[in-house]
């Protein structure tokens, strides 16, 4: 079972040790960078992704300061746990969590156009291209 948990002193060091597969490293910021970013941008929420009691990944989302909408900034599954469906289930749980805020009706996500894995996953979850490219990344949205 996939569960999203807060990051605290008990799992911080394990979270920053997680790594994507080598060929994906150009697509995703490190978890250490993301945690530092969340410290400077307190609207960002970082969560650890667990399969049962095993730490398998990391995600970060927030209400963007520019457009005041939800953005999923990060999703990563450690290389040893990829291709098991954990990323898809983690995204479903994250989307459920965001949808609890009924004042919003859209979630945005962006990714490098070369990241075929991300494109396929996000399209499976119902995200569609919104036509924008920001800092070289294509923007997708999920309206609900």
TrEMBL record:
It comes from Paenibacillus albiflavus. This is GNAT family N-acetyltransferase. Residues 2-144 form the N-acetyltransferase domain. The keyword Acyltransferase applies. GO terms for molecular function: acyltransferase activity, transferring groups other than amino-acyl groups. SUPFAM superfamilies: Acyl-CoA N-acyltransferases (Nat). Keywords: Acyltransferase, Transferase.
């Amino acid at each position: 079972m996939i569960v999203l948990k807060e990051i605290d002193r008990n799992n911080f060091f394990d979270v920053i040790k997680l790594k994507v597969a080598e060929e994906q490293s150009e697509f995703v910021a490190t978890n250490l960078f993301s945690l530092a970013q969340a410290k400077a941008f307190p609207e960002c929420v970082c969560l650890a992704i667990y399969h049962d009691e095993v730490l398998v990944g990391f995600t970060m989302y927030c209400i963007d300061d520019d457009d005041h909408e939800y953005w999923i900034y990060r999703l990563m599954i450690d290389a040893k746990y990829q291709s098991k469906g954990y990323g898809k289930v983690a995204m479903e749980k994250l989307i459920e969590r965001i949808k609890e805020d009924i004042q919003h009706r859209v979630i945005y996500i962006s990714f490098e156009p070369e990241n075929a894995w991300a494109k396929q996953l996000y399209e499976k979850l119902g995200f569609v291209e919104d036509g924008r490219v920001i800092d070289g990344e294509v923007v997708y949205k999920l309206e609900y």
